[in-house]
Design a protein that fits this description.
This protein is mainly alpha-helical. It has helices spanning 13-30, 39-45, 49-67, 74-86. The relative contact order is 0.04.
Length: 87
């Protein structure tokens, strides 16, 4: 009896696992995000001396309001409102 070869490819059970591993590595490297912040954006995100003074003043006002020491001057408030709305 003669057995003929039917062009059956060789079976390698480890090849399928290797292909899956390679595909997983490709997906992991392909989905990496990258961000670059320009020097101008970094400069804009820094706090300025004006902002620092303003934050300090806001904290002082909050403390005065919480302690009950803050007093509203009605004349000054009215004058400032009129000045603001006349612009």
């Amino acid at each position: 009896m003669k057995i003929n070869k039917f062009n059956i490819p060789p079976v390698n059970p480890y090849r399928a696992n290797q292909v899956k591993t390679d595909q997983a590595k490709e997906k992991a490297t392909a989905k990496m995000d990258k961000i670059e912040i320009s020097s101008k954006a970094k400069q804009l995100s820094e706090t300025t001396p004006f902002e620092a003074k303003r934050n300090e003043r806001v904290q002082q006002l909050k403390a005065q309001i919480e302690s009950g020491e803050y007093q509203v001057e009605p004349e000054k408030l009215a004058a400032d409102l009129i000045k603001y709305f006349k612009k």
